[in-house]
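Weekly puzzle thread! Below is a chain. First person to post its structure in token form gets bragging rights.
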Amino acid sequence: MATVETLVRDMAALVLLGSIGELLIPASELGKYLRLVMGLLLILLVMTPLLGLLSEQELSIDGLFAAINADDNSAAYIADGERLRSSLSEQALDDYQRQLAAQAAALALGVDGVAAARAEAVCASDGSIERLTLYISWTEHSEQAEQRLRAQLGGYYGLQAQQLLINEAGGSEDDG
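Winning reply:
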């Protein structure tokens, strides 16, 4: 209770001092600086008892971390996190390979002489393409059409010749 009385008394004195200062320095450039200093002093005056209360409760970051580290299940949490990361990485890679194969098949359909296309992609864990296999149904198979297909897909994906395999689709396979 004494802290509140002291706070109110000090605030009243500060406001009175600020008012006297404004009367002595009316409407000049120094007036705005006086108000700034008085506002800062008022904030300091209010914050000092609050900070004193917090320090009495001995709040410390070290104590917070000690409580967190006291949990013996942290190794299990880390292992669960690693399993989850691995599972999500595999799912993302599978989705990427499917989407890449669908995109490659769509690009192949843009080449003259290709009637239908299906693709399979194999990628490394970092997402780089290891192998792209195309199964093509040709309207008219020619060496030039296959070279155009290799040039388009190889150039688009930056593939070497050994990374891009082109096979003729069988009559019974689903080519779509």
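Puzzle host: Confirmed. Bonus trivia for everyone else. Residues 171-176 have pLDDT under 50 and may be disordered.
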